[in-house]
Amino acid sequence: MFELPLVITSKRTRTSRKLKYQYINNLSKKYDGINGISNGQTELPTPENSATETSENEEVGQQKRRRIRKRLKSIIGESYSDLESDEEQPVEEVDNEERKFYRKYEKPQLTFEKWQCDPRKRTPIQRNRINYNRMNRIQRHGLRRMETSLAVASRTNKTFFHATTQGYQLFDPTYGRANTFQLKHIGTLTSLLHINVLKRKWELAYKCFALLIRIPGVDVRTLWGLGERILAERQPTRSLEFLQWMSSVYSTKLPFADDVNYRMAPVFTKGSKTHTPKYTTTWLWECLIRYANGLEDLEMDSKSAAENFQSLMDRISEMVLGPPYMDDPEVWFIYALCHMVKADTLSQQFDPRLTGSARDIASNQVIQHIQNTKSHLQQCSSKGGFTFPKRYIARQLAAFEARLYGKIDAYDMDEEEDEDNDAHSPSDESGMYPENLDTQLIDSEASLSD
Amino acid sequence: MDDGLLPQHFPTGAQLAVGVRGSSMYVPSQEETGKNGGWVRHFEDDMPFNLNELQIGKDAIVLDDPSTFIVEDDDEDGMESLRNLQDDSPVDDEVLDDDNEFNEQWKETIIKDLRWERLSPSIPSNFSVFQGIDFHKDPMFDTRYGSPISPQDYVPGTLINDITQSDYLAAVRRKSKRETEKLLMFDPVVNDLFVAGNIQTARDLRSNSDQQTVIAFCSGETNSILKLAVLPENKLHLANGAQWLQELFAKNVDDELGTFASIDLKASIKSIKIADVSSLLGRCSDTVGVLTENALHFIKIDNIDPQTSHISYSMHEPLKSTSFGDFPFADFVFNPWELQQFAVVDIKGNWGVARLPKAIKPGSRIRFLPNLKGSIFDPEELSNWKRIEWSSSYSKLLIIDASKMVELDIENDWQLEVVQAKTWSYLRDYRRIDDEFGALLTSKEIIIVSTKSGNEQVSRVISWKHCLDPTDQTLRLSIQKMPLGFKMLILTCIFSKGHDKVYVHGFCHDQDRHLVQAVNGPILICMPHVFKGISSMHFLPYNEEERWIASDTQGQKLWLNFLFKDNSTNRLMHCFLTNDELSDPQDQLFVTPERMDAVPSLLPPIARHIDQVRFFIGQTKVTMFEEPETPIAPDSEIFQNFGYQLSEAINGIVESWENQQMDIEQVQPLLSDLTNVPTKYESMEELESLLHQLSEYYRDLGIVLTDFKTISKLLIKEETMNFDLFFSKLLQCWDIVTPNSLSVTRKVFDSILWSILRFYKSANYDKIETELRESLTEPYSEMISHWDEDESQLMGDQTSDDRLIQESSRPQFLFGSQSQIPTIKSSQSKSTRRRRHPHSVQTESSFNVPFTPTEQDLSSSRISGSQWGLLPNTMTPAFSLMSSPTPMLSQSQNSQRPRRKKKRIGGFG
């Protein structure tokens, strides 16, 4: 009953899919013909993609060079992804009906479906209703073109075809699946894995997971979420290591080719030049939250936690230099949060009794972090597509700053601040509470959007 | 600017899955409260309410619809064989001539009760015994009423031609062994076949009385009869859960006396809906809509008698699908803001909005509103499945088919394809939660979408990847929302026609609906009494207003009542989910609490039993009359002989145990296998004492006989050694069923007794166990050894001995364990060869055939090859592939070129 962690194809499913898409293509062609829609415009412009197509030979050479370079780097010991070439998807013959169908649609990387939220894409209501005559004409046309391929199809495929074209759906999930021992084994293990995770039996789940990912063909990228959960319950540090491993091994900087038929949705499983893989963001979030919590715990061995935190920040600062992280608002947001946490901790540790240069250094540290937070947030919002509570963060940042000047008169400090940065500190502590302070909102928002 | 409380991608919302907790927001530390900084996450770990505490009520109450018998599909054949059996017996005619037990009703009673679900069969109140009535045996007069035909979907003609009887339909129903090979089709238009909802009639409104919960369900041979019944509101949330429901249905068994309103719609019902009215209106609807094969019926409930719960109703003129267009309707929905308005969509995506006449008068028709018609027809969408729902406001509609969701505004004349699911996933179901939220089920995720009127469009808020089989097209969603303190919990349940498990995941939102979070962890519930799958499921309405104020949720006991319908039979079943402790521990023995078997057994247990029972009855019938009157020896003699033979045989076996290897089957031999068991004795006490003595005697030798107590406890819920008592209990049951109860019971008793009495020596088990354990390969034996261990203990061990275990497991993977990853070299040579000679490879190694070399294949081998050296030293061994690194490196270098050239077949999974 669960999704198997591998791609299954069998001859039967392939043929039945082929029949189905051939029919669908026939239908839509006829439909377009009837309605006078020209065919050329339905295809999406795919600039990235056509670029790769034209320079295919060059690409091969480049890849070779890149591989050699990577090999050298790996020998030096630099952690570097070697799997980019795996992202190369096989390309089937051009006259493939299925491909023809999918070529028409944009393949989203962030979600399984394409979500349209732009009101500008609205169209007037389609008033033309389909009637039986027209439908019949289309269907007859579709079927006529199918005669030869149907004649050679097996009976099962024919039944499948007729059932789907009649609007029925198939009920049997195992339809067309090869009935081998290994698939059964994988199926059983997958079910056990899921069930034990749901029942919170982590030891058993761990065993299943460990067995499962060793089976050839099983892709750990479809299971990493479960693995992370299991490890997080057993040994929290291990789960971070696992995620780190995932993101270093399965990261790629290649663009996502839109005209290729992928078997696996990239949503939770892959990254590309424009898409940060989910395991990387999860890794960053988990690191941030765990290290931040460690940072707060002053009694504990806070040194290593602080070191961890610092190394996380260093890592992110490196990551945001290149794609895909460079353009991912979420990574920028995480980076900003790092600084915010840091500013919070430092401003709390700030000793108001300090004087002279020591005081300046301490307060400058905090202000540096606050400024970094702001600039990273700005980066984040400039990338677009990411929402976060701006006013709330701005208010918190102002509160951090206010801590530095503690009980001293707020007005003096305001001036001093304005030289450093554009933020205003709140005149009272009510700035902590999101609802109360309206003037503050506008100011800080303005400062953010600069 | 949308200023949500949690950071998230804008059109995407939060995407969560197991292990993916999504983005978070830092809540800084506050000095004055002394609070340290914390985090607000999309995945809420500590809710006041823990989903994991929910358990399923121990027994599902089966609400049989009396007019439809619960019969397995293949019972007909069983009856045939039964009948043949009788025909064969020579004495049949004489003896059975005045025997009336083979009329249809008897058969049903027998079959029904032979399921052993309840010991005391519920006798319908209209039950009567036709003593002395001479039944004509001519099969011509065999009525087929209540015959075992389960309701079937309509199958179009072109399909029928393809499907030969033996091939698909029949074979599937008969549960052939190669079930996986068969295609199973279903009509996606068939939606909820029952619904429970609130009804407030005009009279209720006038008298200012509350709404009543009405359940509407379909019944009858062809699912064409609609039944309506009132569920008494004051009993809905009682802790004893289900008893009253059963009583209600028992009371209503008889159509004449009961309060079920029964309406024959003369076409099979596809969907039933009760209008879900917006809370703004402050009232409930009084109309039930029913979609049948060819028309849409609306039943207006005029009055519900508060005393007798009698429902009086009137019907609108049915809306024929021909009056709308050329295609049958696929779905309809009531306008939540206007009770008289509804919208329909047909199977090709044509939609329209119509209005019910205010009063039901002859000649008043349902009218389609002019200009409020349109189409979302897509030539590429083949499935008939369509959904229509009202969106956030009066004028906005959502129309959904398997590959897209279109939002349209009928007043401002625009439409927008909000969701386009052509590539990775398909839409499976949509449920409206309230005016602001909806739940969309796709083949990959559950998505809570916001339909807030403030937003421009429908947008994703939060999603949960459910990991259920994406090819299962029967996945449907059922939701229930309930207030928990200051939060509103939304439970989403996914069920399928393919299995009996329900996947439950929770979401919650706060009162001002800004913060939407996922609740800790999904759970999986196994529905009892379901053989094939669940066709519809509904929660009983929850009284929200009263509980919203109750802030103290920590100890809140929840009882979530829901009804569900099995798709193989026509039964409606009731069950409940609770986080309360289930009372009555004794009864829990009878539930199989952890029946979450991962692999569904091919044959549902019940079918197997029925076969056995049927065979048994047949046999009994034959032997009962065959036996001539032979002179019977006195009991003492019989038992003496028997006892002697038995002890001889046992001694023999025990000796053989000592001497030689035994195999598993011989570990607990049946007594009845050893010698002929006596059948003609009279005194049961004699037998009892004989067996007692026997067990006493052998106990000293370390040999244990099966204790009869356990069996009696299982069967009659009483621990007794007394055969007489047991016998009389059995007799009670059979007495209702057959006049020959004495002999049948005797037979039953004998076969029960002799089929359970075994003996064993416990020492033998240890031997066998160690033997088996040793025969296992390493990873499996390790798994087995952890299988039953106490978890807490296990965790303790794990953390302390962690290093040790890893160290020890490392070499095992290195040297010759069976499950080791194949080395690069071998997989390479195989895959390249496969390219050239696909046929020869298929025959030569079946093990590798299912895997066309996929990218995973490559990537995993690549990792093992070149990534080994790159892994951090701290990496857990579970993710690094164990092999000696040096040879791998060179191999992978050599093997990269041929692999890269390989072309694979594309397409979507």
Automatic annotation (TrEMBL), chain A:
One of its GO terms (molecular function) is RNA polymerase I core promoter sequence-specific DNA binding. InterPro entries: RNA_pol_I-specific_init_factor (IPR053029), TIF_Rrn11 (IPR007224). One of its GO terms (cellular component) is RNA polymerase I core factor complex. Residues 35-65, 412-450 are annotated as: Disordered. Residues 412-421 have a biased composition (Acidic residues). Residues 437-450 have a biased composition (Polar residues). This is RNA polymerase I-specific transcription initiation factor RRN11. It comes from Zygosaccharomyces rouxii.
TrEMBL record, chain B:
InterPro entries: RNA_pol_I-sp_TIF_RRN6-like, RRN6_beta-prop, RRN6_HB, Rrn6_K-rich. GO terms for biological process: nucleolar large rRNA transcription by RNA polymerase I. Coiled coil: none annotated. Residues 897-909 have a biased composition (Basic residues). Residues 633-752 form the RRN6 helical bundle domain. GO terms for cellular component: RNA polymerase I core factor complex. GO terms for molecular function: RNA polymerase I general transcription initiation factor binding; RNA polymerase I transcription regulatory region sequence-specific DNA binding. Residues 780-908 form the RRN6 K-rich C-terminal domain. It comes from the Eukaryota. Residues 187-523 form the RRN6 beta-propeller domain. Residues 840-896 have a biased composition (Polar residues). Residues 821-909 are annotated as: Disordered. This is RNA polymerase I-specific transcription initiation factor RRN6. It comes from Zygosaccharomyces rouxii.
